[in-house]
Specification:
Layout: E1 5-6, H1 8-13, E2 20-21, E3 33-41, E4 57-59, E5 70-76, E6 94-101, E7 109-111, E8 122-124, H2 131-148, H3 151-156, E9 157-162, H4 171-181, E10 183-184, H5 233-248
Parallel strand pairs: 1-2
Antiparallel strand pairs: 3-6, 3-9, 3-10, 4-5, 5-6, 7-8
Amino acid sequence: MLSGVGPAQDLAKLGITVVHDAPGVGANLRDHPAVFTLFRGVGDGPPDSAPSIQVGLRYSPESSDTRSDIQLSPILMTSEHRPASVQIDSNEFHFGFSAALQNARTSGELTLKSSDPHEQPIINYNYLSDEMDRARMREAVKLGIELAKDGAFAELIAERVNPTDEDLSSDDDLDNWLLRNVYTQHHSSGTCKMGPDDDPMAVVDQYCRVRGLMGLRVVDASVMPDVIRANTNATTIMIAEKVADWMNQ
């Protein structure tokens, strides 16, 4: 957009010369919204060098009609994987369950705040604005709490830090907690989506070529029409390898 490729009206408002009007640039922002259920553990816990994520659960909530909606993973709080929203005021052993929605119904957008490349853009993920998204996340949080009460997990837990019992007292209260604590899984996708000729919001064609411009391609996760139901790294590498093959032919 800073180079003049994007929604013409938005670019003109910022004094950016429009090179190509592409209304889909910055739209259709997709991600895996996640929340974290936090527990204070018993004892010292594993060493700091232990992997933060070693197991995970993929499943479909009862409230869903699609597959593999939720990723539920226990995560140690001794690493960079701790979400910024999780505040821990002691050195005691803590861990929790990350509940991530893998196919959110909603999408957001990325827009420019100014024509200054050093100024951060405006990113609106529009997380959990759809009731079905909230319902699936409520179910995932409750499942994580139930798992923590059972078996080997229960032996490790001194107390649940959040959500509190008050946060769990009703769907509305849990929704409020979700909206306060939702965070990104850093799988942002879709803002230069691939699509057919008759889709005015499609930025690139099936070869990742920007429609309406010669010699320009976009080759990253932004070309995915929707975020995949998994981590995006391997798929992004695959896209890049495929486009590299086309360019070398």
